[in-house]
Write a structure and sequence with these properties.
InterPro entries: Choice_anch_Q_dom (IPR059226). The chain is an all-beta fold. It has a domain of about 80 residues. The chain is built from no helices and six strands. A two-stranded parallel sheet has the order 1-2. Strands 3-4 form a two-stranded antiparallel ribbon. A two-stranded antiparallel sheet has the order 5-6. Strand 3 and strand 4 form a beta hairpin. It is elongated, with a radius of gyration of 24 Å.
Length: about 200
């Protein structure tokens, strides 16, 4: 995946369509032989360039520096499984179902996207997303409601109470701890309790 800047094309010359497949080219320029949508090729032009959404060149693991794919890249799950080795340049197993289509297809590029997109940043709203696979859910029972920031965050998760007396009031808090800097916009929960012993007086 690549993209030309300042009108500079990414390719030059002629290519044989039948033997060149699953390429992502930001600006094909005057090169010929590759057609967008044919043989899995994703081809942009000077008039309509394609941003491959690549991270900066970093040590992502493996023998050389690589460009990792950013979420939303058209290179995700756009490769050809039969033509890719079983591990990426870092040695991580692939393919991974990076676009949550239900089918694991190898990505275009040296580094396979590790997992599905995380939940959207707090406040962006709109689209539903599946959280990172390393996201943890914790339920805490506390006597005092935990103080959080304006966006619902806390620097440290509260611990559970060791003991709740018969007539004590308490809170049951559901926390989502993300493995990255991404926030969680909302979480759907279904909490059941014995109404003989407990009465819910507030839900926030």
């Amino acid at each position: 995946g690549n993209i030309g800047f300042l009108g500079n094309p990414d390719l030059g010359g002629d290519y044989v369509t039948l033997t060149s497949f699953n390429n992502l080219v930001g600006d094909i320029g005057a090169a010929t032989g590759l057609t967008d949508g044919v043989n899995g090729n994703i081809i942009g032009t000077l008039a309509a360039p394609i941003d491959p959404k690549l991270g900066i060149l970093l040590d992502n693991g493996g023998p050389t520096k690589t460009h990792s794919l950013l979420f939303g890249s058209q290179a995700i799950d756009a490769g050809l499984n039969g033509s890719a080795p079983p591990v990426d340049q870092r040695g991580d197993v692939r393919p991974v179902d990076g676009d949550l289509s239900g089918t694991a297809t190898v990505d275009i590029g040296a580094v396979e996207l590790d997992g599905p997109p995380p939940a959207p940043l707090f406040g962006t709203g709109g689209d539903s997303s599946v959280a990172d696979e390393n996201t943890n859910i914790q339920i805490s029972v506390v006597k005092q409601k935990t103080v959080v920031s304006s966006n619902g965050h806390t620097a440290a998760l509260p611990g559970n109470e060791d003991w709740i007396q018969e007539w004590d009031s308490f809170w049951v808090e559901v926390w989502v701890d993300t493995a990255s800097g991404f926030g969680i916009s909302d979480v759907l929960t279904d909490i059941a309790y014995n109404t003989t012993y407990f009465s819910a007086t507030s839900v926030e």
